[in-house]
Structures are given as C-alpha cells and as structure tokens.
Specification:
Helices cover about 40% and strands about 25% of the residues. The protein is α+β, with helices and mostly antiparallel strands. It has a single domain, classed as 2-Layer Sandwich (Gyrase A, domain 2). It has a 4-stranded antiparallel β-sheet with strand order 1-2-4-3, with helices on one face. Strand 1 and strand 2 form a beta hairpin. The two termini are about 15 Å apart.
Length: about 110
C-alpha cells in the first residue's frame, strides 16, 4: 500500500473535473499492488480483491472500508462473500477515475489488516 497516497486528502469533485487516464493512471496504479483498472458499464474503475480466512473477517473488512468511505464521503461498490471481498472505486459524477479513487483504494488496502 502506498502510505503517501493513503495520507492524501480527497478533493471535492465536480462533473467537469478531469478523469485520470493513460500514463497518469498507470503511475498511480503502480502504487497499489493487487489493484487493477477494469471497465464496467463503460467506465474505468479500480478493482481490488481481498482474501480472508472466513466470512467474519471479510465482513469486518467490509465494515472498515465502509467507515473510511463515510469519512471521505466517497463510496465504493463492495461485494462480500465467504472469505473474499471485492472493492471497486470510481467517480460517478465524472464517469471514470479521479485521484480520489486511487487515494481510497490505498486506504482500503491499509484496512485489510486490522
């Protein structure tokens, strides 16, 4: 996990805010081991899979990510299964990736171990 990226503050995002693409996205992605950029519903999203030994640990991680999302007022799609959680970040208002998504992915990675 990128400590410096996780420590950045999310900025207010407007519909005309630029998306992060190309080499900028690739450079930020290098700071996020285990994350990848996927295209879903025509939008680039950051997707990270996390594995746990049981459902209780997966659910606890989901709740930690939820608390981080509430604190930043930036919310991911989260799928929680037995022993596995998928987290996807993107910015609805711009239809793609914003630096905030990379910041929140770094924070989610940090929440994987309590």
């Amino acid at each position: 996990m990128s400590e410096s990226l996780a420590s950045e503050q999310c900025q207010a995002c407007r519909p005309d805010s630029p998306t992060v693409t190309g080499t900028d996205a690739a450079a930020l992605l290098e700071e996020l081991p285990g994350w990848q950029i996927v295209v879903r519903d025509g939008m680039e999203q950051l997707s990270g899979d996390f594995e746990f030994p049981n459902f209780a640990d997966a659910l606890a991680f989901t709740n930690r990510v939820g608390a981080l999302a509430e604190e930043a007022d930036h919310h991911p799609a989260i799928t929680t299964e037995w022993g596995r959680v998928n987290v996807r970040w993107w910015t609805h208002s711009i239809g793609g990736l914003h630096r905030n998504d990379f910041i929140m992915a770094a924070r989610a990675s940090g929440a994987a171990t309590p």
